Amino acid sequence: LFMNEQIFTNLGFNIINKPISINLIVNERRFKSFFGVTAAICSQIWNMTSEHQYNVTKIQLQPVHLLIALHFLKCYHTESVNAALFNIDEKTYRKYQWIFIDIIANKIDVVIYID
Questions:
Q1: What is the 3-state secondary structure (H, E, C) of 19-76?
Q2: pLDDT tens for residues 48-59?
Q3: Distance of CA 7 to CAs 78, 95, 98, Å?
Q4: How many CB atoms are closer than 10 A to CB 82?
Q5: Predicted structure pTM score
């Protein structure tokens, strides 16, 4: 299932409870401060791993699950703090963070990041 940058932008800003600015630079900076990458990179990661996701997990993953994993990699808060941001319990947060980290680690050999 293809996901574009705008889907991740909308979802990310909904999670961080901020309105999307008309200034694209501000949007990118805010998104990266929470998730460590841009919404465009999220879209690329999702699309590179989408065929592999169900084969590994037998669970229909959602874009928010990728954001959970990326947020965990960016922000080393306690599980309670991280889960509260996503409005889920700690067990659910922990489940999806590790599922998607494993998918990324096993599916993507090289990530070229240009800032």
A1: CCCCCHHHHHHHHHHHHCCCHHHHHHHHHHHHHHHHHHHCCCCCHHHHHHHHHHHHCC
A2: 887 776 666 677
A3: 27, 22, 22
A4: 19
A5: 0.88
